[in-house]
Amino acid sequence: MIKFRTLSKRMFLQKWQLAHFTLVLQLLAIIFCSIMIATRSNSDFISWIGIAQEGSIASSISALLVQTTILADMIFFALIYIKGLRMLLSQTWHLLPISSSKLYLANLLTNVLSCAYIFVIQIIGVLAGEFILSLVDKKYQFWQFLGENFQSFTSQSSAAIMDDLAPFIFLILIVLFLTSFVDFTNFSSRVVTDFLPLKNIKWVRWAINVILVIIGMYLFMKLDTYFGRMYYSQASKLNYIAQNLRFVNISNLELLFGTIIFGGIDIYLINRYLETRIK
After folding, report:
1. Which residue has the higher pLDDT, 22 or 142?
2. In 3D, which of 261, 266, 273 has the Cα closest to residue 191?
3. How many CA atoms lie within 13 Å of 62's alpha carbon, on the beta-carbon side?
4. Staple 180 to which of 25, 108, 131, 263, CB 3.0 to 4.6 Å?
């Protein structure tokens, strides 16, 4: 049997290449948009990408760095999800001496690792870009602002620091939840259409996906309201959670439980119903 670590490494290397592809696209977009902003050659274009024309060129390009990072992350997640789905449905990958359950778990893990990998590179890239902007524009006080915030961060209590780290925990959980939920919609639609006596079933599959997404969003909003009230009514009585584990908020718990539920269903569908293809 192939080791889980070896399998995860193979899958990560496949998605690692997509990270570099996305970063190159982001860099090209930054260079192009920065030229447009620096020359002020097209004010309509600058407004269209959501960059304020007031203020210095450095501040506008700084805002551009953040916006392109968010957009690149969305594109990258879509790419690695499609790549992971093809792996899960590929007969070639299922020929490896490992169970389908471990293959699915490796896909979840490598999605998180891939997102963390590109996120770290983007953070380094943004800091490098800010450094260049501070050299070009002496009035741009980014590094002074960064130093003050870093000093403020390190002077906080341990509970407050954990509170500040909550967004990173949220990002990990949102990647896991989105992967498991979208897999659930895709796997469910494939299982349903496999039993239908139709030749052209793509539109049926898309319709099922849309219906499941709408139902999922509705149920999530309802459950979020219900569990939110229940959680905060109980958390106020638990000083340990309220004071020392503030990063364990209702959103993170919902994403964690959602990942476990949908992930379990996904594993069941993979093992019982889904047919792989030669790819």
Report:
1. 22
2. 273
3. 17
4. 263
User: Using alpha carbons only, how large is the chain's radius of gyration in Å?
Assistant: 23
What distance in Å separates the CA atoms of residue 188 and residue 183, rounded to the nearest whole number?
Answer: 8
The torsion defined by the Cα of 132, 135, 137 and 139, in degrees rounded to 10, comes to: 120
Q: Count the neighbouring beta carbons within 10 Å of the beta carbon of residue 231.
A: 17
Q: What is the pLDDT of residues 68-95, one digit of tens each?
A: 898 899 999 999 999 998 888 887 777 7
User: What pTM does this model have?
Assistant: 0.80
CA distance 250 to 268: 27
* Amino acid identity at 91: Q
**Which residues are bridge partners to 277 per DSSP?**
90
Ramachandran bin of 50, using left for φ above 0, alpha for ψ from -120 to 50, beta for the remaining angles: left
Residue type, 153: F
Q: Residue 61 is encoded by which pair of tokens?
A: 């390009």
91 or 242: which leads in pLDDT: 91
Least confident of 4-18, 88-102, 172-186: 88-102
CB 193 within 8 A of CB 205: yes
Give the integer Cα–Cα distance in Å for 78 and 115.
11
